[in-house]
Amino acid sequence: MKKIALLIILVFSFANAIAQSDTLILKNKDVIVGKIKLMTNGALQIETDYSKDDFKIKWKEVIAVNSTTSHMINLSNGELLNGSIQTDSKTQKTYITNLQTQQKKEVDLFNIVYIKSVDDGFWDRLDANFDVGIKLTKAQNLQQLSINAGLGYTARTWFASASYQRMQSVQDDIDPIRRVDTDVSYIKLLKNDFFIPLSVTTLSNTEQDIDLRVLSKGGFGKYIVHSNKKYWGVAAGLSYNHEKYTIESSANESLEAFIGSDLNIYDAGDFSIQSKLTVFPSLTESKRIRTDFMLDTKYDLPLDFYIKLSFVYNHDSKPSADTSKNDYVFQTGFGWKLD
């Protein structure tokens, strides 16, 4: 019986050693052995046996990688590769080897901007965040609530995200204010840093008398800058706008073009900044142009908590009758993220 138990222990130990087969060498000569889960936005996440939580390491601190498992790898020039990663201990050159063809390609570690294990399960590819802000003021009985939630999934050559944002305010002698934004997006990655963006967004906004706006859009884009410090992507395409106003019984439908910009800076210490700007010139309504702008700044705290400042601005050159052309929301929040 003891021999059988010992054999079981040895089998599990061997299997675990195989699973934890990735090795990192850092600039300070530290060596970390585990399983690489993800490298994105300039940070690498590795799972180890000797820590309850995954290690998160800045990619610029890594000088050597050795992994025998297959990964999806994206270079800063937009090239997509699949294979294992090995850094030669003598020459310090790094190679990506296609495990099917055994072809090797020499790469610069600094030019690797994305790594994802192709063997990861569903939960390893999922990330989520949630934050809430509350304001209570005795004067005029002001009550204000803001909620932000997000969910993301990363696959081999695509990623998807969903978000929900709600802001509402109740105050004596003033009509209630409410704004609700939702967004479901899908991005297919192509060669040379091109991509296909698809999304469906909704907006409910008392300031502009929008009972519900549903916007479906698709297009074509390219990352102009894609590194371990930041990325900047631009896209253009068509959108279908279906909207219903509170004071109007009939719905309005229109076809729009769109051009957008997305800038994300994530190698600024514990700060990260993301800015999105999209302009929608209407193709079916004369002289109507809509503009959506978003700015998010986040400061990371220990234990995956964070504080957040965000600003959202909307402009419509031809809004519903007797409503404002502009609406904006400034929010602060405290939250937690899962990744």
From TrEMBL:
<dbReference type="Pfam" id="PF04338">
    <property type="entry name" value="DUF481"/>
</dbReference>
<protein>
    <submittedName>
        <fullName>DUF481 domain-containing protein</fullName>
    </submittedName>
</protein>
<dbReference type="InterPro" id="IPR007433">
    <property type="entry name" value="DUF481"/>
</dbReference>
<keyword id="KW-0732">Signal</keyword>
<feature type="signal peptide">
    <location>
        <begin position="1"/>
        <end position="19"/>
    </location>
</feature>
